[in-house]
Predict the structure of NAD(P)H-binding protein.
Amino acid sequence: MDKVALVLGATGGIGGEVARVLLARGWQVKALHRAPERVAKSGDGLQWLSGDAMEHDDVVAASQGVQLIVHAVNPPGYRNWGQLVLPMLENTMAAARASGARILLPGTVYNYGPDAFLHITEDAPQRPLTRKGAIRVEMERRLRASGLPVLIVRAGDFFGPDAGNNWFAQGLVKPGKPVTAISNPASPGVGHQWAYLPDVAETMVRLLELGEALPQVAVYQIEGHWDGDGMQMAAAIARAAGQPQMKAGAFPWWLVTLAAPFVTVFRELREMRYLWRQPVRMSNAKLRKALGTEPHTPLDVAVRRTLQGQGCLPADAPLHTPAQVSARSARPTSPSAPATAANGATRAGQ
């Protein structure tokens, strides 16, 4: 039988990545968009359908004949979350009832409050202190109560070549520009959990491939990249930019606070500040038991690809790993050659 999926949010980071992995695994993939002629790309392999995730009938019609609905749609720019997120989920659930499909929901750490920190398992209490966290909890509650087959996969902050709105692009670097400065939103010494989108999508599809071995309501968490002291991600960005000596500066939380009443994105960023003030780490023990391992791209590779996808590095930028950086810094120079010449030779050989 043909495997057919409907992806809601295929133009977004996680929706697009999941769609690509599904296609590579032999699925037919439908994608719903209000203006498909504007977003469809030649050769992308998707069957684009015209419709709106806010319209019940559009979603139900698009779901005919599918076995999977990927609910990766979010209001653009964080606008009107309270008014839009839950109605869109209700439409997805109605479509799943009509088609018999399983729902795949990309989850987040926002569900948890400080009482669940530091090491969080899938059944940890969900008592968030934020508005967005409360909506996330309600989304999962409705899915659990629906009686539908559901797969929820929670992960840390996304980054990747096509990640869309995320902390990496909004807080650490400036997309479309060479890396000349790095900001670090974390408090000194506080760890942070990151999730590379291609790894997240691969993990989700591997879980789906478990088929009937998946519980009716299956919930898993991804380890991703754990930045133990809050400085490893910034160091990887500096290495990717070929400037390993570059140090991260403090993120301008004061500016976010001032602009929050007037700028929606800043308001949402400020609400999530608590995740940067204390270490928050979700356990992947249950995932490893199910799959045996977790797909994991090395940090330096993932960061380089992310910066290339965001226009911060050229496509042919070389890979700089910690070992390569250490080897170059330890490389002796000729005592008879001027320092500038030696440095130039080193750069030319990179």
User: Anything to note?
Assistant: The radius of gyration is 22 Å.
